[in-house]
Here is the input.
Amino acid sequence: MRHIISVLVQDHPRVLNRITGLFARRGFNLESLAVGTTHVPGLSRISLVVSGDDRTLEQVEKQLNRLIEVLKVTDHAEPHVERELCLVKVHVAGVEERLAVKDIQEAFRARVVDVAQRSLILELTGDSGKIDSFLEALRPYGILEVMRTGAVAMSRGERTLKVREKREAV
Here is the structure.
């Protein structure tokens, strides 16, 4: 089963290494990992996409919560918004190919971010399924490079980020 886990952490050296080490020791392959700052100074959020059964993942969550720099762990099983950013460089040899790729770009609401004589770089934001479909549609034209950020997620509705008292104890 695929899980998106958000981990709210204090910005300290080696925190990312400690967190990914927990997953490595459990034999999980991280499908994607994204890290960024939050609206609270000194805190970052790490988004991890992993596959595994619920029981084992629950154990990893408990171990994550034991790390002093970890303030909150959320497994986004509840309704959530998920997004990923993808940059793709596609080969366009002639005018016909360029127009065909432009049709695909418009259908997926992607943006052209670079134009060269024989290639285009397109940017797309969406869930992983949308990005997979976009790449599949472009494949016949010759994908030269792909860079994906990995999934980030946020719970839907009124739920907000609430930090445990653990933060004040640190």
